[in-house]
User: Fold this.
Amino acid sequence: MTGTPVDAHWHAYGYTGPRGYFPHHERDAPTDPASWLGRPASEIMATLSGPEDAEAWMRQQLAALPGAEGEPGYLSASLYLRENLYAAQSTTAWASYRDRHDRHVLRLLAACPQPSVRRYPWEKPPPSCPLGEPSP
Ligand SMILES: [Zn+2]
Assistant:
């Protein structure tokens, strides 16, 4: 059986860098959803209520900010978007690429809430929803 938990949703994050600035490590953008969900709620670009909405948001972003010719990050983001959203819902779907204006574009969808995180060698509680109750 497939399907999302009842209250599953995605928070969208991202930035568009200045023209001509492309960090050497741009492919190392953090894709761990916990590191994004721990950011201030003010950084959330959009909250999507299902994989269809999340896919539509990312496709709209990719269409608005086309990748540079043959840009592999853009191509792989388009190619793996559905897989990341539908098949691996506890992870993230992201795009990190150079656009046609020579800017670094990062767009990322973090599934929320996250299941308990089991990451060797740490055991961490799942991050809470950034739009939920504020932490004390
Ligand atoms: Zn949330």
Q: What stands out?
A: Residues 1-6 have pLDDT under 50 and may be disordered. The helical segments are 33-37, 51-64, 72-87.
